[in-house]
Design brief:
The chain has 124 residues and is mainly β. It has one helix at 97-102; strands at 3-5, 8-13, 22-24, 34-36, 46-47, 54-57, 61-63, 67-77, 88-94, 106-107, 112-123. The strands form two sheets. Strands 2, 3, 4, 7, 8, 9, 10 and 11 form an eight-stranded mixed beta sheet that branches. A three-stranded antiparallel beta sheet has the order 1-6-5, with no helix packed on it. The longest helix has 6 residues, at 97-102.
Length: 124
Amino acid sequence: MSLLYRNLILLERGLAGVPGSVVWGHHTAVDEDNDVNFSGNWTSGAVGVGDTEALYVDGSTELSVPWNVGTGWVQILLNKYGSGNNVTIYYKTGNSSANCIADSWHLFDTTFKSKGWVLIKLEE
């Protein structure tokens, strides 16, 4: 069964003025500092364009590109701007893109402390 994830959002919390928050898959009237496509920023599975873009996973794992969200508390939200399915979320964090990639995977719960860069993994 294919799972649909829409509007995955990485929100930087606690550091005013750090332009690190991002939403993937939605572009119109967003609250985040950056709005980008799933396509080209995740390993595969992106379908649609613009505000209708979504990420499909069918028994596989999806990885984001490392994102410089800044240091501070981070919250990851799913489906803020549209409906979709739930997924298990993992993250890595580091003070550089390379250190973020080298970090081990951590199971996401409600928030976590970012070291600057964040990488997200979605599993069905």
